[in-house]
Each structure stands twice: as structure tokens, then as C-alpha cells.
Amino acid sequence: MAVIKGKKPHVLAVPYPAQGHVKPLMKLARLIARHGIKVTFVNIECIHEKIVAAAKMSGSEEEDDQEDGDIVLTSIPDGRSPEDDQNNSFKLLESLRNTMPGFLTGLIESINRSNGDERVSCVIADISIGWILETAQKMGAEPVIFSPPSAAALAIVLHSPGLLEQGNLDSNGTIKKDEMISLSDNIPPWRKDELAWSFPADLETQKIFFECSLRIEKTIIQTKWLLSNTCYDLESSACDLIPGFLPVGPLLETNNPKSLSNSCNFHPEDASCLSWLNNKPPGSVVYVSFGSLAVLSQQQLDELALGLELSGMAFLWVVRSDLANGSRAVYPGGFLERVGELGKIVEWAPQERVLSHPSVACFLSHCGWNSTLEGLSNGVPFLCWPYFADQHHNQNYICEKWEIGVRIDPEENGMRTRHEIKTKIEMLFSDGRFKANAMKVKEIIGKSVGEGGSSYKNFKTFVDHLSK
Ligand code: UDP
């Protein structure tokens, strides 16, 4: 169906409901809005409420109408009933698949009715909810996909049907023999249990993830536009494997950290860590964060606390209220008193501002792709502690390809000991190569998002097309 346009372009941006998906799509939305294009950003209701509440608690300057320049934040129901298990993400996905097309159709109809000059002309959908592109097309809007993870992560997903067919993978998506999977000499290989859908602790769950991966290829052929939060200069070989791929990243926070739509945090930011950082010497602090989803057992949390203490380094540690296996953390006896001013713990940090702070020396990270890009963009070396999804492969990029970090290796029982943590912190501080390499990557990225760079040009191509 042809795109039906009003006088002005109007983009509807729809993220997958997770922190690591909402944030980068909002950064893309802000870039688009800065070019004078109206954007309506659609979260499901529970996420919208979290963002509004977190922004208010962090002291956002936004008014109640939730409008920010030409970005309007709005919400649709997620289709679940109160009796449904609200923590079951598969049930949520099933409900979104069934109900989102209807709710979005209603929303687009109401926008188009209220102002014919600003009809929705384009829908940007997160790749994980690509089924809404059909709704976009039915409503006369141009369908666009946004892919938040690395190009390598998308490339392996797109290769999954072939790998299954050739017998490299079994029907659960597990690498069959004791092999590695390599897509190119310039991309680190994937070892057993490092694939984007790997979930060895629960093969049923892994199979669901794997089946979703097998379907992604069908999603992307629905659109000419496949935007991604990476940059060509960072992963050219992986980008080359994906037809029609348009890397526009890294998408970074704008310089208005107090704006509601800028941060899109699910938790209120604790900015007190910035003044704490101001009192620390340059390059002296280990920043520790596991993103929005990963959890630690209480025993592992104890080992980490004691490892940080043993290292004798200053540390800023994000301990979400559910980090200890869904519960509030309990620290080893006397830990907080012993570390005193050397340690700062917050429930949620303004991460990009932390990573750009001169006092931060390195990032102990779960290697989520957003965190990886944010560290890279600021020239910060990594201590890697991946959990699932693409995080293992991001670690391989960090340690094997860019050589800007080291792994904190688990024992056979999966535990990372305090001694391993201390040893790796010392290794990173004592070898200047990691920082030097990280600064080189920062420069490469800076060029790609700067005027005339590859991501800059790709974004311009897209935004010029939207404005036509
Ligand atoms: N983040 C943040 N403050 C924190 C921890 C994380 O703002 O204290 C942000 C971080 O900057 C990143 C996102 O949350 O943009 C997490 O995304 P990522 O892909 O790294 O991990 P995920 O949460 O998806 O596992």
C-alpha cells in the first residue's frame, strides 16, 4: 500500500518493552525530532508509568503533558488481564502479538482524525515486535525496523535458519558438535552457549528464543529500512552480511539529561554519584553495573563485594533493588563500614554521564550492547561479566577484537571469586594497552557519528527520506 502523507511527516516509534530497547529507540526519536519531524513515542502503559514516575523522582523538568519538543509520549494497553502473571515475559509477548495491532490501529486512526496535516507517515518498530509493520502498512504508513543490538548479533540470528539446515545447530538451537560458529574471519566466533538465543539452564526457554530468531528473517523483508544502533567502522564485516543494513549509532544521550524523553529510565537516577565522582582522582574508579535485568545470587554478590574491597580501588556500584535474585542486596558483615568513602552504591546511575566522567577508570559490565557502546564512546576499558543473549559475543568483541578489556572468568560452578575479581581489576589498571585501545575505538566512533561520518551520513539519508 502507498504511504499516505499529511503536510508534515509524523513518525510513530514503538519499542519492545525493556530498558535496553526503549532507551536507544528514544535516542533515535530525539535525533529525528531535532530535524523538525514530529515523533509519537508509544510505550505499553506499565512502562510509560514507570518512565514518568522515574523521571519525576529524578527531578525531570518536564511538565505533566509529557511533551518534549516534537516528541509526544503516549501509551497503549498491553492486553493482559490483572490475573495474568505480570512477570512472565513470554505471556506478555504473546499478549502484545495478539493485541498490539488493534491498539495501534486505534491510536493511528485517532491521530489521523485529530490532525490531517500530521497523519502518521512512518512507523519505526523494534525488530522484536516486527509484526506491527503489517499494521503500519495497512494504515498507509511506511514500515521501518530498528534493531538495538550489534550487527553481529543480528547477523547470527539471520543465519540461524541456514545453520539449522546445515546441521550446525540442533532443533533447540544448540551448537551440535564441539564446534564454534564463525561468520567471517573478522568477527569473533560464537562458542557453545554464546549464541544470542542460548539459555543452557532452560532448554525450553532457549527453544522459544531460537524459534523467534528463525522468524526474524521474515520480519525484515517487509521493509526497505533496517536501522541499527551500531556503526559501520566498528563492525564492518558484520554490517556487510546484512542486506539493506543502515547503522546509525552509537545513539547517545543528548545534552539535556533532565528531559523526560531523553532518559527514559525505568528507575529514578541517583545523581549523587556524580558529585561523589567529582571528589575522586582522574582514572581511579571502577564503575560496576549489570544493566536492567541481570541478577546475582547472594553468594555471588558477597564475592563481588569482597573482591572490590580486596582490590583497594574506589568503586561506584549500581545495586538495583532486585539485583540479589530479585531481592534487596545484603552486604557481607562490616563491608560498608570498611570501604567507607572508597565505595559508592546507588540503585540506578546516570550511566552515560558516569562513563564520561574523568574519574572513571574502567567498567565492570554485563556487556549489554547499550552499555558496551556507552563504554566504547567514552574510551573506557572493560571488565567483562556477561550473562545471556548477545552479552557473551559482545564480550568476545571487547576482549578478542578490540582488545579493550579482560574477562572475569567463572569457576566451573559458575561462581566468580573475589580473588579473580581482584586479579582482573589489577590487570586492567596495570596494563596501559587496554586504555590506549579504548581511546582509539572512541576516536573511530566519534568520527562515524560526527559530521560526514558513516553513521551521520546513514542517518541523514533516512531523515531526508522522511522529510520528502
Ligand atoms: N543504565 C542506566 N543506569 C544504570 C544502569 C543502566 O542508565 O544504573 C542504562 C544503560 O546506560 C543502558 C541501559 O540502561 O543504556 C541498559 O542496556 P544494556 O543493553 O546495557 O543492558 P540490559 O539492561 O538490556 O541488559
UniProtKB/TrEMBL annotation:
The molecular function terms in GO held by this entry are: quercetin 3-O-glucosyltransferase activity; quercetin 7-O-glucosyltransferase activity
The UniProt keywords, alphabetically, are:
Transferase
Question: Does Protein transport count among this protein's keywords?
Answer: no
The segment annotated Disordered runs over 58-87
Going by the entry's taxonomy, the superkingdom of the source organism is recorded as: Eukaryota
- Listed CDD domains: GT1_Gtf-like
Q: Where is the composition biased (Acidic residues)?
A: 60-70
UniProt xrefs under PANTHER family: GLUCOSYL/GLUCURONOSYL TRANSFERASES, UDP-GLYCOSYLTRANSFERASE 83A1-LIKE
Family assignment from sequence similarity: Belongs to the UDP-glycosyltransferase family.
What protein name applies here? UDP-glycosyltransferase 83A1-like
Q: Which organism is it from?
A: Sesamum indicum
Gene name of this polypeptide: LOC105164221
